[in-house]
Design brief:
By secondary structure, the chain is of the alpha/beta class. The protein folds into 2 domains: about 5-60 and about 95-275, TIM Barrel, CATH 3.20.20.70; about 285-350, Antifreeze-like/N-acetylneuraminic acid synthase C-terminal domain (Type Iii Antifreeze Protein Isoform Hplc 12), CATH 3.90.1210.10. About 30% of the residues lie in helices and about 15% in strands. The chain contains 12 helices and 13 strands. It has helices spanning about 35-50, 60-65, 85-90, 95-110, 120-130, 145-150, 165-180, 205-210, 225-235, 260-275, 285-290, 330, and strands spanning about 5-10, 10-15, 20-25, 50-55, 110-115, 135, 155-160, 185-190, 215-220, 240, 295-300, 315-320, 345. It has an 8-stranded parallel beta sheet with strand order 5-4-3-10-9-8-7-6. The chain has a 3-stranded antiparallel beta sheet with strand order 12-11-13, with no helix packed on it. The chain has a two-stranded antiparallel ribbon with strand order 1-2. A hairpin with a 2-residue loop joins strand 1 (about 5-10) and strand 2 (about 10-15). Helix 9 packs parallel to helix 10 (about 260-275). The chain is elongated. The two termini are about 55 Å apart.
Amino acid sequence: MEEIIIHTPKGERKIGPGNPVFIIAEMSGNHNQDIQRAYKIIDAAVEAGVDAIKLQTYTPDTLTIDCDNDFFKVKVNDVWKGKTLYELYKEAYTPWEWQAQLKSYGESKGVLVFSTPFDESSVDFLETLNVELYKVASFEMVDLELLKKIGSTKKPVIISRGLGSKEEISLSVKTLKVAGAPQVAVLHCVSSYPAEVDQMNLATIPDIIKNFNVIAGLSDHSLGITAAVTSVALGANIIEKHFTLSRKDGGSDSAFSLEPNEMRELVATVREVEKAIGVPTYLAGAKEKENLVFRRSLFVVEDVKVGEVFTSKNIRCIRPGYGLQPRYLHDVIGKKSTQDISRGTPLNLDMVG
């Protein structure tokens, strides 16, 4: 499994096992068609400590057609229900004329800004912005022509696998790599808005790593931070969460987005979890060694004269741990003392003849 290496405003950044989790704040349509709000979302994401901010690059016309027959009506999600696809995407899209400005602004604040393209023209547009990597949305992972176009940029790619079967994931990864993508990461994702905790099946994350030998992560549409934090313990190296200033302000994706205080908590908790996971080790750490004294060891528990035989009456395995380790007990029993020893003295090999 190859690391993803990208260049950020703070320097080279590696994504993968052994590196800090790459945390992405997804702006999506939460700007509510107000560029000043978009700038404020970036400011709040920077303050929360995320690594990157992600945009979406499409227009209503690149995703669908303006048609109001029943095929194009949204029938799920209380926020989206009743609208046509065209109406929804017109409300949610990020104007392309903003995107260079938002990228420049975010990167001046120290965070990477990149995007999800939804058709070949949006890839061409994002190439003019010199984005460092690409994201493939769950519903687009089966669009092989789009994947070929993205792969041809020879940039790293992150895929969300919502609704994707093993066969579809395998084909998507292969298509991107054959087209030229140097590395591909796959994010577990539940395409439900919001997703319930019992839908999450986070055990899929280590299975993705095992089956596809890729960097894995989580694109999380659930409420709160529980799923995202748990994913780190299961091997997630990337976390993506939708982000808004306030869910009360509405917007196409606000209902399943984190607010600033929640994003700060997510970032802080993930960094704590990373420290707790650490590396495999069976060695006592510096602080832990302080407590070695509370182990049992061999002590003289009755005064012993030189030449006297050690017995189970005059030596015992007790706390503290200053004497010989307990495993020496049967080697010492029956041996003679080389010196006078007073009660309460830790036993060492020099005392045993």
